[in-house]
Structures are given as C-alpha cells and as structure tokens.
Amino acid sequence: MAGRLIYLIGPSGSGKDSLLDAARARLAERGCRIVRRVITRSAEAAGEAAQGVSPEQFAAMDAEGAFALSWQANGLSYGIPREIDDWLAAGEDVLVNGSRGHLAQTRLRYPTLLVVLLSVDQAVLRQRLLARGRESIADIDERLARNARFSDSLIAAPDVFLLDNSGALALTVERLLGCLDGHPACA
Questions:
Q1: Which of 13, 26, 141, 150 lies most in the core, judged by the most C-beta atoms within 10 Å?
Q2: Is 15 annotated among the ligand-binding residues?
Q3: Which tens digit of pLDDT belongs to each residue from 151-165?
Q4: Is 79 annotated as a binding residue?
Q5: Domain ranges of the chain
Q6: Cα 149–Cα 40–Cα 100 angle in degrees, nearest 5
Q7: Residue 65 among known ligand-binding residues
Q8: Element (H, E) at 22
Q9: Residue 91 marked in a binding site
Q10: 182: annotated binding-site residue?
Q11: Which residues make up the binding site for ATP (predicted)?
Q12: Top CATH class, 5-179
C-alpha cells in the first residue's frame, strides 16, 4: 500500500516550522517522514531545516529532475526532492511544507494527498511577522492581504483540514497527530 502525502500549508508566520519541529519525534514514531525543502536562500535565513542553494544551483537541480515538486513564491524558489516518490511507493507517509499557491498542481500529481491548512488569527500573524523582522511593514501588510485571499477559498474546500495555531503549540501538535491517526475531525 502506498504512503500518503501530507501537504502542510499556511501563511508565512503561521508556525509551520515550529509545528514540524515540535511534532518531529512523534511523527517519526508513526513512520512519517518530514521532507527537507530546497530553497534559494541560505539555510540560516530560511528559519527551517532547509537546504539553501543559489538560484543557479536551484535551476540546475530543477532541470536535472531533482524535484518532485517545485514552485516560486515571494521571490524565492522552493523544491521538494523527488525521493518522496520512493518513500510513498514504499508505503511511508511523507509530510511536506508546501505552498498554497501550488496546491492545484500538487493535487494533479498526488490526487490522494491530505491537505492540512495551518491557520492563525490575523492579529497573531501580524505580531509574529513583525517579531521575525524579515520584512517591511508594507511587505507584512501585503502578506496579510494575500493570506486573507488564500484562506477564504481554502477554508471552504471540503477536503482541507483546518488546523488553528493561534494558541498553544502543544495543542496544535495534538490536533495534527489526531488528524493523521484518523481522528474524525480530519475525515
């Protein structure tokens, strides 16, 4: 039996990396791999366990077929290594930190994927983005507006599991694990 692709999406600042870090050991116990993305910025700036590469390196990797999925967002390129296909074929679950903007293309390639939308209250999101210190106020305002556009359409989708991360991270981890273990809220 093939594994399942779990496609975690949400706005920048929603806590995807924090959630993955907090849930990593428990996901591993369940045989779920967390994929290390390739991003065209340094690993130190990425804020996640990503492989940082130059735009030229990324383009070469993409041309060589190194990625199962790749997309551009916010001036950066992102890639998911093609080895996920081997893991899925071997029956392993694979969790990907994905892109809301690339969801339609991902669904075409992986029609049975489980989409988990990490949401956060807009006021909390604004504070997190400000505390991060990576973007200007104008950039943050644009991210918040983009988030509102994406969230409205995704929340209405029946096959998207909405996971609120406005509160305690431990609660979000439990809800994610419940979803993956077949909890009715995820059905």
A1: 13
A2: yes
A3: 666 665 667 888 999
A4: no
A5: 5-179
A6: 20
A7: no
A8: helix 16-29
A9: no
A10: no
A11: 10-17
A12: alpha beta
